[in-house]
Specification:
The chain is 72% helix and 1% strand. The chain is mainly α and 332 residues long. The protein has one domain: Farnesyl Diphosphate Synthase (Orthogonal Bundle), CATH 1.10.600.10. It has a two-stranded antiparallel sheet with strand order 1-2. Helix 2 packs across helix 5 and helix 9 packs across helix 10.
């Protein structure tokens, strides 16, 4: 089947175009997650890294470097570093959220324990910095180090705000720009920096990654009430974890006193009963919260595509633009 076929998903087209580089990234990941003294490290890491994730974030680094004409070896190291940062945050998130499933499989903290998940996550963070140093660029190190700090900050903010009806849209966007978009934007920005591109193009790829990450997270939150995708996420996971995501924030803002009392009971107090998820879905639909959330995701995807306008025309630029559309198309 041709890669230009409309039946081939944009993510798959991008993966095929970057297949050689991604193979090198995967080899480096396997080598870097090895440990001579602690066999549990590769066991826990392999369980998550090899669980069938899309590898979207490292692909963004490779795509950015390719788009900018980089011909050196270090985009592979930075892509692997980005994936390790992401994997470390997933291990920590599952402990914080007391999750039992990730990508359709039992979580590492369920199969082993919380201590192993936290410590292996710490190990992967350390490995990521070892890989960053290989590029011999203080600016690249600064970008990825700041992203790692911003992700942690976003997670702490979410911990403070997620079960409060006082959480509004500005706080929500502050959270997701930290916990999700920061790594997307760092992944695309470092490719341009590595290639020595002009500041205008570096900023454009930062803006692309930021907007793509925001759109991605909005859709991820929307899928919790709209349906399920290949990640294995089930309808109602965020509801059961009492998260104030964008659809709920919109419904709460539009609700009357009785509806707010319902949301306070199930989200703030955690008093969830049979039929509550179904009632929550009724309220979300009654106020158009799901459609409004999808509209927001489309708008951010549009911002991502607009950011690419300053980049030279190429097949890679087109694939990145198509990827922004695909992120939203996960909701059908």
């Amino acid at each position: 089947m041709s890669l230009d076929s409309p039946t081939v998903k944009p993510h798959d087209r991008l993966a095929a175009a970057l297949a050689e580089d991604m193979a090198a990234v995967n080899t480096l990941i396997r080598e870097s997650m090895a440990s001579k003294h602690a066999p549990r490290i590769p066991q826990v890491t392999a369980h998550l890294v090899e669980a069938g994730g899309k590898r979207l974030r490292p692909m963004l680094t490779l795509a950015s470097a390719r788009l900018c004409g980089y011909d050196g070896p270090y985009h592979v190291h930075l892509a692997a570093a980005v994936e390790f940062i992401h994997t470390a945050t997933l291990l920590h998130d599952d402990v914080v959220d007391e999750s039992r499933q990730r990508r359709g499989r039992p979580t590492a903290n369920l199969l082993w324990d919380n201590k192993s998940s936290v410590l292996v996550g710490d190990y992967l963070f350390a490995r990521s910095f070892q890989l960053m140093v290989e590029a011999k660029s203080i600016r690249v190190l600064d970008i990825l180090a700041n992203a790692a700090a911003t992700i942690a900050e976003g997670e702490v903010l979410q911990l403070m705000a997620s079960q409060s009806l006082a959480t509004d849209e500005p706080v929500y966007f502050q959270i997701i720009r930290g916990k999700t978009a920061a790594l997307f934007s760092a992944a695309t920005e470092v490719g341009a920096v590595l290639a020595g591109r002009p500041e205008e193009e570096i900023r454009a790829l930062f803006d692309y990654g930021d907007a793509l990450g925001v759109s991605f997270q909005i859709v991820d939150d929307l899928l919790d009430y709209w349906g399920t995708d290949a990640t294995g996420k089930n309808v109602g996971d965020d509801f059961r974890e009492r998260k104030m995501t964008l659809p709920v924030i919109k419904a709460v803002a539009a609700g009357d006193q009785t509806e707010r009392a319902f949301w306070a009971r199930v989200i703030e107090k955690g008093d969830q009963r049979d039929g509550d998820l179904e009632h929550a879905l009724e309220l979300l639909n009654a106020h158009g919260a799901l459609e409004q959330t999808r509209t927001d995701a489309l708008a951010w995807a549009g911002k991502a595509k607009d950011a690419l306008a300053v980049m030279p025309r190429s097949d890679m630029r087109d694939m990145l633009a198509d990827l922004a559309d695909y992120v939203v198309a996960r909701v059908n």
